[in-house]
Amino acid sequence: MSADWENLQNLAINRFPGVENKPGIYFIRWKKYETPVTINRLGGSDSNGLLYVGESKDLRRNFRRIWRGIIEVNSAKSKTAHTLRNTIVFCRLHEEINSDEYEIAWQHLSTKIEAQVQEAAALNLYTEKYKEPPPLNLKICGQKYLNWGIVYFDQSRWTVKPNDFVKSIISRTY
Predict the structure, then answer these.
(1) Which CATH class is domain 6-171?
(2) Which of 70, 94, 156, 157 is the most exposed place for a label (fewest CB within 10 A)?
């Protein structure tokens, strides 16, 4: 299975066609001049430009919130924007990444639990390769790590298996 990347700005302009109000997993990357931007990581260079891995019980709503967060970086804090907005503002990423340089790939899944499992699998796979999570996944060490592997799913973080979609995104970085 191969992932289809979509320009987030174009998706927003066209009101997110093909994105349903269903659970799923998504990946956000940085693409400039038609090429993913290589991001240096502790364990090597991520030539896919992966910035963020996320899951949602409602992808369409979540994508609207993400987009709102990207375009509202210079306004007062928005209660309806995705938490990714706070990272973009705090790290001043809007000075480096233009709003038209974000791309997104996603997969609809049956349940929120399945989306959470695949997010955990993606983060595990990425972290195994690069020795750290994607640069904008900042809450990983505190909240998510315990939730995915030990408490929430009652299993080791190493036993979560990525599906073919997740492998297609992460394996491009090898």
Answers:
(1) alpha beta
(2) 156
